[in-house]
Amino acid sequence: MQPFFFLSSVNSMKARYNAYSDYFVKIFGERVQKVTIDAGFSCPNRDGTKGRGGCTYCNNDAFNPSYCQPHKSIAQQITEGIEFHKVRYRRANRYLAYFQAFSNTHAPLSKLKELYDEALAYPGVTGLVIGTRPDCIDDEKLEYFAGLASKYYVIIEYGIESCYDRTLLKINRQHSFEDSVNAIRKTAGYGIRTGAHLIFGLPGESREEMIHEAEILSELPLNTIKFHQLQIIEDTYMALDFLRNPQEYQLFGLEEYIDFIIRFIERLNPEFVIERFTGEAPPRFQAGPTWGNLRTDQVVNMIEKRLEELDTWQGRLYKANV
Ligand code: SF4
Question: Of 30, 276, 69, 8, which is closest to residue 153 (Cα–Cα)?
Answer without folding.
Answer: 30
